[in-house]
Design a protein that fits this description.
Length: 294
């Protein structure tokens, strides 16, 4: 059919064009690789022929805590990053970028965070990290320090915003561990390993501090009153148990001893009454209460 033939021709043309583009790209890439290899060999031959003169230009020292990523004609040299020690390179073909592998720490500026229960707090933290893959650190991120700093700020706000104020105050270690996991998962594509995250300070609003102080004071007062009441109850039970074991004579002697222990002064007057009067008074009160109930 004519329509089918046209479609078949169009598809065939498109397929051929794609193959031509692919073949062209492959040929151009192969030519560039050949040119780069030739330039490298010529440069090595030139360095060998003029070795005494060019030795000082082709040597670079990499410190123990550094690694060097070499770009040759715009591409990273295959293999691991070079160093430490003496490094040989081709000055007019290679570009060297040194990466520090030591642990780096930076402070996160105080962040205004709204907790899950709607309390505004100001939190700052410190992050410790180090580069574990220099090639990724150089090729995957433009400014690794700024990127890690921004990631730590956003992670701090997101993590604290998912917790209540009570959790932030009582579970600080658990929150920092969660932040470490999130930062590690996000920054490992850049060749970074986050070692530790610590919350430095937690600033609460003044009004909230006053409310928390009043609440804590009220709780302490209530606890003190409960302790005093429990002590009085225990003392009264102990006194009742002791009184039940007294004979009338012993009870009277204890009564007189208690009177003698009262400090005498001009403003204190002590009258000694027989205990029988107290018994009569107690029985009279009991009789009145019984008549009232009936």
């Amino acid at each position: 059919m004519p329509g089918v033939n046209k479609v078949g021709v169009i598809c065939a043309d498109g397929f051929d064009a794609g193959n031509k583009r692919k073949d062209g790209g492959g040929k151009s890439g192969g030519v560039l690789e050949v040119v780069g290899t030739v330039l490298t060999l010529l440069s090595v031959a030139f360095i060998i022929f003029t070795f005494p003169l060019t030795a000082w230009m082709c040597a670079k020292v990499v410190q123990e805590y550094e690694r060097a990523v070499i770009f040759r004609l715009g591409r990273v040299v295959k293999g691991r990053a070079k160093g430490p020690g003496l490094l040989w390179f081709i000055p007019w073909l290679d570009v060297i970028q040194k990466v520090d592998l030591r642990t780096v720490s930076f402070n996160i500026q105080p962040q205004e965070v709204l907790t899950a229960d709607g309390v505004p707090v100001k939190v700052d933290a410190v992050v410790f990290y180090r580069v574990v893959d220099p090639s990724l650190w150089v090729t995957r991120v433009k400014n690794g320090y700024a990127a890690t700093h921004s990631l730590a700020q956003t992670t701090l706000r997101a993590t604290l915003g998912a917790h209540t104020l009570t959790d932030v105050l009582t579970q600080r270690r658990g929150i920092t561990v969660r932040m470490e996991k999130v930062l590690y998962a996000a920054a490992r594509a850049w060749g970074v390993q986050v070692e530790r995250v610590e919350l430095k300070d937690l600033a609460l609003p003044v009004t909230l501090q006053r409310c928390m102080a009043s609440e804590a004071e009220a709780a302490r007062n209530a606890r003190a009153k409960m302790i005093v009441a429990e002590g009085e109850a225990k003392a009264s039970r102990a006194l009742m148990e002791a009184a039940t074991g007294f004979s009338p004579v012993a009870f009277h002697l204890r009564y007189l001893q208690s009177l003698s222990s009262v400090s005498s002064s001009a403003s204190v007057v002590v009258f000694s009454l027989p205990t029988e009067l107290l018994d009569v008074f107690i029985s009279h009160q009991a009789l009145l209460s019984t008549n009232y109930t009936t």
